[in-house]
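Reopening this ticket.

The earlier resolution said the output was attached, but the attachment link was broken on my side. Pasting everything inline this time so it's all in one place.
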Amino acid sequence: MPINQEHKLSLLTDILKNQMEQHQMTTDEYDQISRLLSSLLNESALSNTQLEQTFMAIQQHHYGNNSGFSDTDVEQWLQTIEQYKTQ
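Inline output:
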């Protein structure tokens, strides 16, 4: 059963929060972020430019970086995702 956009955003949020708390990423989390970002960016229902830019920023920081993200970046990304989810 495919997951919808809301579930994908929740999963991405959970992974980012976990990474921020633990300051590391497992290989599975790294792979899952890649799949989620690819899927979310390809969805035709994605009409929020700021959210799309956030996904692209995560993707840019993500590729080639399996050591994790900075807390500042993650907090900013989470804030943008949460704003979109409450609209």
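Reporter confirms the inline version is readable. The CA atoms of residues 62 and 69 lie 8 Å apart. The first helix runs from residue 5 to 22.
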